[in-house]
Write a structure and sequence with these properties.
ATP synthase subunit delta, chloroplastic, 2 domains, Peroxidase, domain 1
Length: 184
């Protein structure tokens, strides 16, 4: 069994437990906000990620840092959840657990996640039109756009929804033309 399969099997029960508890106690919005705060903090601080991933740092020190950083920002349940992860030496999987939690939430709410890369930033109106098109394509109730700017696209955009990729970029069209011409 590959290492990723093992990690996925470890991550899923934690994400499911978090989801189940948050929905049973009508805390899903609050838990999602709390996890976004934690995720943003980890994304912005490579030192914090290294600290949590370091097996030489004691459990108590990790707990103290978590309490110091998040006690005033997140609810008690999420804080206790983080401390359990530290106790069970699973804090290194926190980012994966948060990602899996949001995947489960989106699936539960019929939300499609679309990763959109554009050469220039889309206006709100353009994003709204794109969201409506994606809702129609995927039969989803909601769409969450993950936007990024990629200057190598030259113009247009690419969209990835699950394993499906739509490339309307100028660079994509040029690559198609080059491939077509090279086969002739």
């Amino acid at each position: 069994m590959s290492n990723q399969n093992v990690i996925a099997k470890v991550v899923l029960p934690y994400a499911e437990a978090l989801l189940e508890h948050s929905y049973q106690n009508n805390l899903s919005d609050e838990v999602s906000q709390n996890l976004s705060i934690i995720s943003d903090t980890l994304e912005q601080s490579s030192d914090l990620r290294l600290f949590f991933n370091n097996p030489l740092v004691s459990v108590e020190l990790k707990k103290n840092v978590i309490n110091h950083l998040f006690a005033d920002q997140i609810n008690t349940f999420v804080l206790k959840f983080l401390l359990v992860l530290v106790d069970r030496r699973r804090i290194t999987l926190l980012t994966l657990i948060i990602t899996k939690y949001f995947d489960l939430v989106y699936k539960l709410n019929s939300t499609a996640i679309a990763y959109v890369s554009t050469a220039i930033a889309l206006t709100e109106k353009q994003q709204e039109v794109l969201i409506q098109k994606i809702k129609t394509m995927t039969n989803s109730k909601q769409v969450k756009l993950e936007m990024s700017i990629d200057l190598s696209l030259i113009g247009g955009f690419t969209i990835q929804i699950g394993s499906k990729k739509i490339d309307t970029s100028l660079s994509g069209k040029l690559k198609q033309m080059a491939l077509y011409l090279s086969t002739k």
